Structure prediction request, 617 residues.
Amino acid sequence: MAFLLRRLGFYLAAFLAAATINFFLPRLMPGDPIQLMFSSAGAELPPESLESLKLTFGFVDGPLWKQYLTYIGSIFTGDLGRSIKYFPLPVTSVLGHALIWTLVLMGTATIISFVLGTWLGVMAAWKRGSRFDVIVSVTSIFATSVPAVVTSLIVLFVFGFTLDWFPNGYAADPSLDPAFTLQYISSVAYHGVLPMLTLCTVLIGGFTVTMRNNMINLLGEDYIVMARAKGLSDRRVMLWYAARNALLPTVSSLAIAIGTILGGSLVTEVVFNYPGLGNVLYQAILARDYPVIQGQLLIMTATMLVANFIVDVSYVLLDPRLKAA
Amino acid sequence: MKTLLKNRKALVGLAIIATIAILAIAAPWLTEYNPATRTGRPHQAPSMDHILGTTRIGQDVFARVLYGARTSLMVGFGAGLLITVVGTVLGIVSGYRGGKTDEVISFFTNMVLVVPNLPLLLVLAAFIGQASPVVIALILGATSWAWGARVTRAETLSVKQKDFVKSAEMMGEKQWRIMAFEIFPNVISIVGINFIGSVIFAIITQATLEFLGLGDPRAISWGNMLFAAQKASALSVGAWWEILTPCFALAFLGIGMSLLNFAVDEIANPRLRTGNRLGRWSLLVRNGEGRL
Prediction:
């Protein structure tokens, strides 16, 4: 419990740090940042958007610390200001809608690649040196070393344009109304195949290699030899003695991988025109929509921290030593 | 270095990187075209005149990919060096000094590790506006040192206990001398792994930032080629050469760097016959260093 509380405090500090960066960045810009943001957005905007932009970034009358408190206060009450591009829509509603798509895409891809990657890693380690191991290891190295941008574009080119098997963009058929109907859900699944394939390609290698290495390190341990000496079946030794323990560091590496996953999903969404955070961000960058860009950092930090916390909790559940401490 | 040359992965990796570097340096002799200007009609398919076709605005793709390699390599190695220097200095100082210094540095390191890197870079780049490759390298260096600092610190903690450090302390050597001449040479393998990993990261991230349109569009680089191609809907209009060329260039360089990375890892850490960032991370966790 103490462990989790300490982590929680730490995450709060990290979130505050991200918010602080957001607060100071516009103030470090030369000239009047609000005017600059306004003019570089280049759009026809009503004067009241200028006012709300000032409020978004805490440009109220008073000393800096007061501005800072106003800004932090509005963030913790869930007010991230209003989008310039979609004025007067609040940033939270622009991002909130997109976040759901990103979580669906990212969550599914993470689970698929974690399960599949871990399983491949276990098998490769068990049969280390075999042809299976060589193929899996080498493919993993190649898959992880190609940037997500490149993987997305190549997948899009091959399956979207050349073979034309799957749609090239959007999360669902635009002519369908979002509802829990079989037709809509199957359309979402059909549109999700390519982005999912890309993300899994990017992610799976890391999990495979990690699991394989952990397993190989563990297979030399005494208790494995002991389990074999007891005459337990191969399967039991592999899964319940080696894999179970090798999983522990893999789970904690998942926490660090979440940053990579977020980055990968950003890029993938842009390429596949998927209505998640990445695409909203891309549109925001093109339109120089600063409130949305900044809100993005906060939402992504929050997502990453929540995911980290879930990993922490599962770590405590998996490792009995931590519960005692 | 000798063991490095005996490793097959390292050799292939080095060969790939060397090929790209030579092509980048020899660019003016390999192509007659200026990468920045119009040299043909828009979206010409690959032909004898333009080996890899032309872009939407009629620039030669082959020339652009060759000159772009210079940017990618320079930003990659420049930012990689910066990231490694910052990470190594912070890691050694916090590991060796311990106490309050360590607490402060470790706290910041852990914090930077949990704030997602790419979104942070995006925000920074958006405010700087049309970030040139040099600026991108600088902000990468400023934000991406945390992983290196942490592993170097862990390694320093174990080296610090060795007798030769103790005896240097007894002899009254200055702290900076101990850190620079006793500790640093003994954590060099971690520093090397950190450097290669950082170069990979920098190359990929620079390309990503530029692909998202945050770079200076006048710079000739692979990321900008992707950005321009995406904006010109190169795939939908069938101009695959415009988009696949920088794609394969990036993939090729990425694979080359990764092979080198895995090889150095295997040599530095015989228990891990292969490994990557995640692998190294989990090893640290196993040793009890990875916990916050």
